[in-house]
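Example record

The entry below shows one chain as it appears in the dataset: sequence first, then structure tokens.
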Amino acid sequence: MALSDDDEQPLASAAETLLLIRQQQAEAARQLNPDPRLIYWPWGVAWLVGFGLFFLRFGPDHRVFVDLPEWLPLTTLFVLLGAAGALSAITGARSYGQITGDSARRGQWYGFAWLIGFASYGIVLSRVTDHLPDDLARLLWAAAAVGLTGVLHVAGGAIWLDRNLLRLGIWLSVINIVGVYAGPGWHALIVAVAGGGGMLIGGTITWLGRRNRS
């Protein structure tokens, strides 16, 4: 039995409406979820370059692979971390600025956790590291920063049920422990390659997965 134009019209309209709803949902998700490359890649570059310079200048067993000024690795790391933090903050503000209610408060409180955590980290370690040899002081500063970052990523994954953030936090925590056991110099190399490189790869995988779903 052939369908009349009147029979086909509602079906076509329903399909078009469903397609429009899906397109609107995808657009809303795109606007509310920042591009993972803008979140992961700046931090990955900062860790890869910054800790890489630490390894080249302050290698294992006091080896100097590249005779850089002593101030250069730390200065470079801080500048790159500051740039990564600024870019992440801008990206997050543009994406989450439209969100209100409990989700907005979670984001604000999570941001305060980072601020309070690293403020405490800097104050406490500044009173301790002066009593340590230079190589152990550098290891303590780096290991504490990476450890705190890993824990905060795990917490973020728990708050938003984000498996990628949870996995990254666990990964950073594991390589940090491995690096500490490996010792000064090796810790910087492990964090640079596995930490910074891991963030670059993680951002790429997350972006590709989101693009495929779209």
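Notes for this example: Residues 49 and 192 are 7 Å apart (CA to CA). The chain has one domain: 33-213.
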